[in-house]
Design brief:
- With 82 residues, this protein is an all-alpha fold.
- The protein has one domain.
- 51% of the residues lie in helices and 0% in strands.
- It has six helices and no strands.
- The longest helix has 13 residues.
- The chain is globular and about 35 Å long.
Length: 82
Amino acid sequence: MYKTFYKKVPDYLSDLFTSSDNNYDLRGNENRLRLPNFRTEFAKRNCFSFTGVKVWNSIPFKIRSASNLSLFKKNINDLAVI
């Protein structure tokens, strides 16, 4: 998801996700993605675009805003150990 958010993947993957831009300066709204709307729970559980966005948005902002991929991976691994 890091590469997808920072547009380091092919367009067909990055087109699956949209950033959560709005006109208001809300706390915790930085580097977040918009959840796609699905009518069924089956689609929510089995769709990569929904599950990926939920996981990405659950990561703390400090980790999501890492300056490079190696730092992001290190921070994710440190988070998993805790």
